[in-house]
Amino acid sequence: MIDRLLKKIDMHKAVVGVVGLGYVGLPLVREFTSAGIKVTGFDIDHNKIKALHAGKSYIEHIPSSAVRKMAGSGLFDATDDFDRLSRPDCIIICVPTPLTKQHEPDMTYIEKTAEAVSRRLRRGQLVVLESTTYPGTTREVMLPILARSGLKVGKDFFLAFSPEREDPGRKDYTTKTIPKIVGGYDKASLAAAVAIYQLAIDTIVPVSSCEAAEAAKILENTYRCVNIALVNELKILFYRMKIDVWEVINAAATKPFGFTPFYPGPGLGGHCIPIDPFYLSWKAREYGMRTRFIELSGEVNVGMPRFVIHKVIEALNGRGKALKGAKVLILGLAYKKDIDDVRESPSLELIELLKHHGAKVDYNDPHVPRTHKMREYDLQMTSQKLTAANLKSYDAVLISTDHSSYDYQFIVDNAKLVIDARNACRNVKYGRAKIVMA
Questions:
Q1: Same domain for 171 and 248?
Q2: Would 229 be classed as within a structural domain?
Q3: CA-CA distance, 200 to 162, in Å (whole number)?
Q4: What is the pLDDT of residue 271?
Q5: Measured between alpha carbons, how far is 149 from 119 in angstroms, rounded to an integer?
Q6: CATH of the domain at 320
Q7: Which residues of the chain have a pLDDT value below 70?
Q8: Domain, as residue range, for 194
Q9: Backbone torsions φ then ψ of 184, nearest 5 degrees
Q10: What pLDDT was estimated at residue 272?
Q11: Long-range Cβ contact pairs of 410-417 (< 8 A, separation 24 or more)
Q12: Both 335 and 405 in a single domain?
């Protein structure tokens, strides 16, 4: 069975199915179709399917021209008909892995997708999970569900884990050029997964097991989470000591070895860093261990939006204005600069906190013209125009995301008060008395 699948892959005749056509799945589709591989994309969101059929992209860094190219090649089709899951030779799962309100893993999307695959699973198929999760998910959650099909893993079908490493907005690396870690349930599964990814990705990094691949991605994100928490905590300390944390970081970064700069902010955003370390922390309890570094870093990072709000209150009070009833404009809804991805963005919590304190809140983001319903938020807001007259109408402007397109001198010139949570105004020459660092 494995020889037949490998031969089909080697002849470029294997069909790939990608489940979940979001920030991970759609870029993967593009790379496979660019390599001449036929792909069927699956998603439960009919609006996404409709947009793709119309040749329109819903992800900013994947232009509509790329979608039209994929469709025009005759290699790509998108569907919400999951009965078609029996057709691809390889099924790659790219679905969300959020946290519950108790900060525990929410496996709902993985479980439902695995159930959908299991009902259609046929002999000779390879199933790969890409969703970031805790070590053991592929073997302990996915496999038992797939086994309900009556097929035997390693003999009738093959199973692997390959963590997504997408970083929306990055210019120096793409889905194709970011090395791809792959761990298989067994040797046959690893061979099949390596073979299929080699068709579209430049560098493949095989590891010994699904668990090793799962752990590698968690390590990457935990490393960043802990280091960001460190500088966030130092930001608060240095603020009290009247020391500029940005100046300190930039000075330390001149050391050519032994130091990697990380930068503070209003909180963590994106799907990975705010969430994935908690997956490992949760799993560690199964082994009777507390991951104190991870838990403490999570606590520090989760608390940053409240620190920023405290700075807004403090800054307004200094000008004889209460936050209650104040008009506040948030600049940037995306979780980082120059992208349209708002997943877990600290701006969302900042808006909620400001409203809770009685402020009247608007936002501007050139990449996010309007909000959409999310798992935890349904703000129903529209991006406001960034004109001189509009800026003057707000009691405070809070910079939450430092988009490159913003003219920060123009913003400072026209705003009454600017609270800068990103050091975005570092090059502003005039009106610095209006700026409060947060």
A1: no
A2: no
A3: 14
A4: 67
A5: 6
A6: 3.40.50.720
A7: 270-274
A8: 2-213
A9: -105, 155
A10: 67
A11: 411/331, 411/386, 413/388, 414/388, 415/391, 416/319, 416/392, 417/315, 417/316, 417/319
A12: yes
Characterize 103-116 residue by residue with b for buried, 16 or more Cβ atoms within 10 angstroms of its Cβ, and e for exposed: eebbbebbeebbeb
Interhelix angle 276-284/210-240, nearest 10 degrees: 110
Residues with catalytic roles: 272
Burial class (CB in 10 A: 0-12, 13-18, 19+), 390: middle
Do both 162 and 132 map to the same domain? yes
pLDDT score recorded for residue 283: 86
pLDDT at 284: 87
In this predicted model, what pLDDT tens digit does every residue of 196-250 receive, in sequence order?
999 999 999 999 999 999 999 999 999 999 999 999 999 999 999 999 999 999 9
Q: Considering its fold, how many domains does the chain have in total?
A: 2
Verify that 263 and 120 share a domain, yes or no: no
Rounded CA gap, 383 and 378, in Å? 14
The Cα–Cα gap between 7 and 355 comes to: 59
What's the CA gap between 381 and 74, in Å, rounded? Answer: 38
3-state secondary structure the chain: CHHHHHHHHHCCCCCEEEECCCCCHHHHHHHHHHCCCCEEEECCCHHHHHHHHCCCCCCCCCCHHHHHHHHHCCCEEEECCHHHHHCCCEEEECCCCCECCCCCECCHHHHHHHHHHHCCCCCCCEEEECCCCCCCHHHHHHHHHHHHHCCCECCCEEEEECCCCCCCCCCCCCCCCCCEEEEECCHHHHHHHHHHHHCCCCCEEEECCHHHHHHHHHHHHHHHHHHHHHHHHHHHHHHHCCCCHHHHHHHHCCCCCCCCCCCCCCCCCCCCCCCHHHHHHHHHHHHCCCCHHHHHHHHHHHCHHHHHHHHHHHHHHCCCCCCCCCEEEEECCCCCCCCCCCCCCHHHHHHHHHHHCCCEEEEECCCCCECCCCCCCCCCCECCCCCHHHHHCCCEEEECCCCCCCCHHHHHHHCCCEEECCCCCCCCCCCHHHEEEC
Q: Tell me what pLDDT residue 298 has.
A: 85
